[in-house]
Amino acid sequence: MILSALLTSVGINVGLCFLFFILYSILRNQPINAQLYKPRLVAEGKFHEENEFHVERLLPSVSWVKRAWKPSEDELLSNSGLDAVVFIRIFIFSLRVFGFAAIVGILILLPFNYMGNQLSFDFTDLQNKSLESFSISNVDDGSKRLWIHFCAVYVFTAVVCYLLYFEYDHIASKRIAYFYSSKPRPNQFTVLVRGVPVTSGRSFSESVEGFFSEYYPSTYLSNSEVRRTRKLKELINEADKVKKRLAGLKSENYTQRRLGRSGFMGLFRRRIDLQDHYEKQLEDIEANVRTERSSVAEKEVPAAFVSFKSRFSAAIASHLQQGVKPTEWVTEQAPDPQDVHWPFFSASFFTRWMCNIAVIFACIFVTIVFLVPVILVQGLTHLDRLEKWFPFLKGILNLKIISQVITGYLPSLILQMFLSLVPPVMIVLSSIQGYIALSQIEKSACTKVLWFTIWNIFFANVLSGSALYMVNILLEPKRIPELLAVAVPAQASFFIAYVVTSGWTSTLSSELFRPKLLIWSFLKRSLWWKSDEELEAPSNPYHSEIPRVLFFSLLGITYFFLAPLMLPFLLVYYCLGYIIFRNQILNVYVPKFETGGKFWPVVHDATIFSLILMHVIAIGIFGLKKVPLASSLTIPLPILALIFNSYCRRRFLPSFKGYPAECLINKDRIDQGDPTISSFYDKLTTAYQEPAMKATTYYETSESSSAPLLRGAD
């Protein structure tokens, strides 16, 4: 890709970013858009609508930047939890890493690359030159200047490892402090038991109570059985939707919209009285719910939530094998009640094992299928290939502006469009693996999306230039450093364009502006009567955003000494991301779960992988540049990185898998003097009842009706 095409891509994306920022600054001041741009404040009752018109609302303002910057880390912790703090710490860590990298790369390495003579370079035709003229490829073979790059790799590795250790230690300390400052939570006292054996003449609930009363007589508190309530939940959800629609029809704003048409968007159906229609629909749902509730008690599954009187007892029960057979009485720490993923409790050990195998093959299949758009994108970056594949486009492709847009902007845009489909797919695959918590599903999906992105966006793009690369890697693994050293620098311009398109525009600006939801909200208000349904405040999209941030980190680490020109673009992304996501966490996203910072080990492992990848490429590039001594002296670096990773895993990772006995016992002792602990135990006995079983919502089918549709669980 020539430099002019890259500049065209950057110019387009800068324009889009500026437009999105201006529109957001105006739209967020409009009270009608509060549920779109401030749904968390609306949900928590912190947003107060002003009915008076002010001209200032029509003018763009950046006051939101100051409000997003102002809260301290402790305020963010108390407001959004430790997971949100860890997410923001990823940006802080990246800014520190690439701030140092930019100083070394731009001020030291880039001038040495620029002064090389390996590639022909004409200063009068700068914009039509390849980006390789500013990369290590332009340094002369065997030049002593390559030792500057060698020293930079060593120093950069040391700095990244130091910052990794500092962040790991900081977040581990925050995790312990957050635990001590938290109030008693049900998941700290509860374990999930699966694989309850069938006992003749006894229900699963009676078997669980008998087992734990016998072996944990002094600390066992209670148990909550799990039942199959999927159909009941669907009925209740349907009733909720109908109730909201009925309430909207009865409001003053919709008295003239009472008559309508049934069916999809009201098309091709007879005209009816909507209020009578939905009242009749509620009556039918009421009958179905009562019928289903009467049969739920007989639908027990071999699983239960078992609560104890202390955190320490729950931790012991979750880590020890309970029965002689390892597939019976299987225990694990329970998630928070609102974090529980209910659908998979009835699955047996064998079913969960088979689902895990199926998910592995499904991930492989998705990865292979995604190679199609990758090959398409790589074809767009080479005009000669397009002219060969589509000869009739030769005249259009010869136009300068068209060729620059196609080679500079379009490939990254197409790749981003296909990549946006991956996170939802990975969420679905993770949800059928047998996880019991939404947080576990999201963490698993985060890991899947991360490695999918690394393989399909980095390696597939790097190696898809020639099928010979992939064949050589399979046949001669020893040549991997050499092959990567040839292929990776050649894709620098593509990845810079990808950072600008995917990072600046598709992620940050769209994250702030939320164009899809804005259009959907406008259509609901303007065209359909369903405008009484409020937009639900979304949860933090960790499974999609953390992999993207870490992938950009991989690009920055890998290209640090290869093409330092990428580093300023990454710094802009991390600076904008830091402010934008602080704003979103404070105003938009509502935490649906709390893992206690368990996403950080994923960040640590991904960073170590990026360092090792940089080392492998460095070994190959120094060999190709005919500096064999530098290549040999780089070999210890990946070994040292693995040793450092092993130390960090032993030093910090156990604290992220569970809390130490010292902390659990101390916290239990503190609770002994808490006068509210007895009332907490009372609530704990019913905390893990399924939502459908403890529903106490009442629906009226008419103004005179007072019969409850749903009753509380007995």
From TrEMBL:
GO process annotations (BP) = monoatomic ion transmembrane transport
Q: Which InterPro entries match?
A: Csc1-like, CSC1/OSCA1-like_7TM, CSC1/OSCA1-like_cyt, CSC1/OSCA1-like_N
Subcellular compartments: Membrane
Give the CSC1/OSCA1-like N-terminal transmembrane domain ranges.
5-167
Task: Report how it sits in the membrane.
Answer: Multi-pass membrane protein
Q: What are the residue boundaries of the CSC1/OSCA1-like 7TM region domain, all occurrences included?
A: 357-622
Asked whether the keyword DNA damage is assigned, the reply is no
**Where is the chain membrane-spanning?**
6-27, 86-110, 146-166, 353-377, 389-410, 417-438, 450-471, 483-504, 549-581, 602-623, 629-648
> Is Transport set as a keyword in this record?
yes
Locate the CSC1/OSCA1-like cytosolic domain: which residues?
A: 188-343
Name where it mostly resides: membrane
> One GO term of the cellular component aspect?
membrane
Q: Which UniProt keywords apply?
A: Calcium, Ion channel, Ion transport, Membrane, Transmembrane, Transmembrane helix, Transport
Q: What PANTHER family does the database record attribute to this sequence? A: CSC1-LIKE PROTEIN HYP1, PROBABLE MEMBRANE PROTEIN DUF221-RELATED
Family note:
Belongs to the CSC1 (TC 1.A.17) family.
Which named protein is this? CSC1-like protein HYP1
